[in-house]
Every structure is written in C-alpha cells, then in structure tokens.
Amino acid sequence: MKDLFVDQLVNVSVFQGVARLEFARIESVDTETNQAKMGPSYRVCMTLGAFSDLADKVSNAKAQMQRTGSAGQTESEH
C-alpha cells in the first residue's frame, strides 16, 4: 500500500454519482507573514457508496478522538 500525505482537504464535489475529494499541500511559506501558499496535491474519486462509508468512518474517528482527548495532537504526543 502506498501512503499519500496532504495538508488540507480543499473541496468535495459530487457529480454524476461520483464524489471527488480535492486535496492540497503547502508549496511555500512566507516567512514575513507566516502564511502558507497551498497548491493542488491529489484528487480522490469514489462512488457515492464508498463516499458514504468514508463519511461514517471519519465521523466515528472524530468522535473517538474527542472522547480520548487526542483531537489535534500528533501520534507522538499521545
């Protein structure tokens, strides 16, 4: 399995039975303003059934993170 890293989900669209999730990554950081410039990274396309399953799993993972107090922490901070 191949791992892909993204910094942010920037858009979700649904058209003709396909959900498209568009991700971005940080391309550069302006050191004076500490602002990141984002650029396109990956687009993941899936059926609506797969997208619905993804939404359920993300919701469950978020709820678990909130219960354990790990929201916003990196793995090394646990």
Keywords:
alpha+beta, 1 helix, 78 residues, three-stranded antiparallel sheet
What is the gist of this entry?
The protein has 78 residues and is an alpha+beta fold. The chain has one helix at residues 48-68, and strands at 8-15, 18-30, 35-47.
Molecular structure report:
This protein has one domain (8-68). It has one helix spanning 48-68; strands at 8-15, 18-30, 35-47. It is of the alpha+beta class and 78 residues long. It has a three-stranded antiparallel sheet.
Structural class: alpha+beta
Write down how many β-strands occur, each being a DSSP E stretch of 2 or more residues: 3
Q: Which whole number gives the mean pLDDT?
A: 91
Helix share bin: 25-40%
Tell me the number of structural domains.
Answer: 1
Strand order of the largest sheet: 1-2-3
**Biggest sheet overview:** 3 strands, antiparallel
Number of helices: 1
What is the radius of gyration? 16 Å
Give the distance, in angstroms, between the N- and C-terminal Cα atoms: 25 Å
Q: Note the run of SSEs as H and E.
A: EEEH
User: Are there runs of 5+ residues with pLDDT below 50, and where?
Assistant: none
Strand content: 35-45%
What is the 3D shape? flat
